[in-house]
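Posting here for the record, re: iron/sulfur cluster.
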Amino acid sequence: MRERVLRVEDLTTSFRTDRGLLRAIEGVSFEVGKGEILGLVGESGCGKSVTSMSIMRLYDEKYTVKYSGKVWLDEREILSLPYRKMQDVRGHDMAMIFQDALSSLNPVLRVCDQIMEPLKIHQGMNREEGFRKAVEMLRLVGIPSPETRARQYPHELSGGMRQRVMIAIALCCQPKLLIADEPTTALDVTIQAQILDLILELNHQLQMGVILITHDLAVVAQTCQRVAVMYLGQIVEEAEVSELFDHPLHPYTQGLMASIPRIDTGSRERLHMIAGTVPLLHQVPSGCRFAPRCPYASDRCKQCMPELTESREGHKVRCHLIKGVKADG
Ligand code: SF4
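Prediction output follows.
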């Protein structure tokens, strides 16, 4: 059993809107171990990014959101910390990298200044020490001529290099937890493979916990040890990667799997599509949230929300059908 870095328990995030409080994620619970990479997957609008932004507490709590639940980083509960105290946690104990490095980096600051900022705030480094560390970090993430690159601005770097700079900023204080929100989506496949390899290598080297948010199951298969599938703000299935790929139980996960293009069948079959779209937050069904799109939905599914329960060892699923199969078996 791995040493635990993060425990999220019953996390619910609601947005204040003209229609009242709308729950974007509800009852989300999972853990991440030291050195473990957990994949968080699902379609756009399923709540993956809201989950990560909520763990980091990056939404404006005064006007925009209301949180409930618990988030432990090591043994420290951080969801109830005074907001100002979170500034000591973010960038130091946990860090995040985003999808679009160009819009996440500051265009008017040189690369070294952006890496040095958390080092000054969290470790009190002076300019000289900070620059040395910035160069070291650029070297660690595989940027050639790091002394020269450190003095450049983001627009002078390629997309892949900018993403490496984001990783360098996130890791410069050696966080216990790294959240990577679609870190390769904006990159071409070759650079994507390099960035994923880099995350894997650094994860192995630094033994941090990683949450990798992606809609790409191939990325999960290559990179993660465990995976949680989200649908409409809830986790609907969670298991070890090999277990989930070999035995997907939830109809939504099965739909995602069937949507992966295959080159080994030699046929020209049309790709499977999950019917319909993710409903809007003010149109969330009262029973199983996947019922309007599920080919197996029954009256019970439409009236009663299934719980996330363990159906095989270490394999949790939220579906009435699976519990029924288990009870019959
Ligand atoms: Fe489909 Fe019912 Fe299972 Fe929901 S509970 S996924 S509607 S079978």
